[in-house]
Amino acid sequence: MSDRIVDWVFLVVTAAQADGGVEIRLQGTGFLLAGGDGLAITARHVARALGEEPAGGMFRDDDDGWRLTSATEVETHPREDVAWLRLETDDHGSQLRLDPGERHQATPYMVWGYPEDVHYEMVDHSSGKALPRPDLIYSEGYVRRRMTGIPIDSVSGHTLFELSAVAGDGCSGGPVIWKRPGLPGPWQVIGVYIGQRTNYLADDPNRRRSTADVAVGYATRVAGDDWFTELMP
Fold first, then answer.
1. Which residues pair with 11 in a beta bridge?
2. Which residues pair with 41 in a beta bridge?
3. Distance from first CA to last CA of the chain, Å, rounded?
4. pLDDT class of 65 with cuts at 50, 70, 90
5. CB distance 204 to 182 below 8 Å
């Protein structure tokens, strides 16, 4: 089994015909579950973006290239912003496991994902066009609070963690891993990253001024949810 996290966390993509070729569209992040035989988790809004187009996961090759693995099944959570994908059986392996334990404020975590801000940071100077160059990015922080039934603007879900750091658009569906003492392994996933929000100043009713230092991320909690429990070995 691979011990590289780049082999466990992947790009969720769709493929569409364009200009006589195939255009790969980056939709978000997904991650494989240990012992799942191609079973992976992503965000529900990412899974819904797949639509009727061919879709799947893009993984790094040993030669630093990419390989596409098709998704054969998709199931979304009835309430929360998460979904599972079944990828074609291949050589998939992972050390990421869903953690049934309850986690609270101040729990340290790490997130891996493919944020949009690095997708097109390279430019082809001959054409002036941005080139796709996705990189797996790491971020970390601590759980600010647990939230149940509190509506959050632009964030979907009922049982959430509010996170101290924003991972970025494109990281939706990425694993929120308990950064426990003694890592590496086992890698215990306590949540699924689903988005972020920037707090606006209370005296600005037109929401024109934001304070970047209070931008926060959100994740769907794993513990206590039967939908996740059924995916645990």
1. 29, 58
2. 31, 84
3. 17
4. confident
5. no
Would you state the pLDDT for residue 132?
61
The beta strand positions in the chain, using DSSP E, are 9-18, 21-32, 39-42, 55-60, 66-76, 83-87, 96-98, 108-113, 122-124, 129-131, 137-148, 159-163, 175-178, 187-200, 210-221
The burial of 120, by beta-carbon neighbours within 10 Å (0-12 exposed, 13-18 middle, 19 or more buried), is given as: middle
Residue, of 20 and 109, whose pLDDT is higher: 109
Measure the CA–CA gap between 144 and 163, rounded to whole angstroms. Answer: 5
pLDDT for res 122: 53
Nearest to 166 by CA among 189, 187, 146, 193: 193
The distance of Cα 214 from the centroid of its chain, to the nearest Å, equals: 21
**Among all chains, which residue has been given the structure tokens 């040993």?**
62
Encoded tokens for 30: 């997904």
- C-alpha 57/C-alpha 123 separation (Å) is 24
Q: Which of 131, 134, 130 is nearest to 119 (CA)?
A: 134
pLDDT score at 28: 94
pLDDT digits (tens, 9 = 90+) for 117-154: 776 655 555 665 555 668 899 999 999 999 999 888 77
* 3-state class (DSSP) for residue 78: coil
Q: pLDDT digits over 95-113, tens only?
A: 999 999 999 999 999 999 9
Which DSSP letter does residue 131 get?
E
Report pTM: 0.87
